[in-house]
Amino acid sequence: MHVFKKITDLRAWLSEQRRRGEHIGFAPTMGALHEGHLSLIRAAKARGDVAVASIFVNPLQFNDPEDLRRYPRMPEHDLLLLEQVGCAALFMPEVEEVYPQGEDLTVRLDFGHLTQVMEGRFRPGHFQGMATVVKRLLDIVKPSRLYMGQKDFQQLTIVAEMLRRLAMPVELVACPTVREPDGLAMSSRNLRLTPAMRSAAPAIFRALTAAKTDFLNRTPVELLKQRAIQTLQSAGLQPEYFEVVDGHTLLPVEHWQPKQFVVACTAAWAGDVRLIDNLILQEG
Ligand code: AMP
Fold this sequence. Notes:
Helix content is 41%, strand content 20%. The chain is built from twelve helices and nine strands. The strands form two sheets. The chain has a six-stranded parallel β-sheet with strand order 1-4-3-2-5-6, with helices on both faces. Strands 7-8-9 form a three-stranded antiparallel β-sheet.
């Protein structure tokens, strides 16, 4: 696997790939890789793309400096895993390479409601920082396809909207959430869970699956949400939100309707670790 720290070196290699008629499949990450990340690389390879990953802990998307400081970093472990799944190249830049001093690369699109609800309410500035880094990385890598996980459902929705608004020539491929055997969504942050909180955390998936059953049984959404919050709290977690939303607009869903794309999204604290997860309750 080729490892690049500089944009010019990465670009030279990418040009060579394109000259050979290859398509680039790109999976941006923040490292501390697990099977969820690797599934994106596998998906790219299955489509016949030359898989390129990036590892960059983007300071712009951390609203909490402590969260940024404590974010797990394990580059050697990550390199090994990427090698094993057949990733062709890794871009691992320093902050100054991505955001050169004096250059304002901020994405200032107004995503309206999409960035105001759920994660947007609890993590001010997070999505602007995320959009800025994704746009910047896409400008550098210029992939044919961008592979991202449904684990970050709101992020996926906002990236889709950004690509549409900026008419960027890249196909967004949404990959299903990879879970531990007990249902906990894989996340780099799981590494920071205490043993007690690691045992409590699968309640998130239990709450989501129960919400799906309730929803399909036409349980009123308010009641379903109360039950979910109760499940999380009884396990010793501190829920921040549990929302049932339209999967396209992220507007709240009040009651079951046929043919609506509906997703339950939640964030909960497990001790001092903030976890997010979601489940599609009904395909559109
Ligand atoms: P992160 O390193 O957390 O920024 O995630 C990088 C990419 O991996 C994003 O597109 C995430 O949605 C995706 N991802 C993270 N965890 C999972 C998971 N458990 N299953 C599938 N994709 C994931």
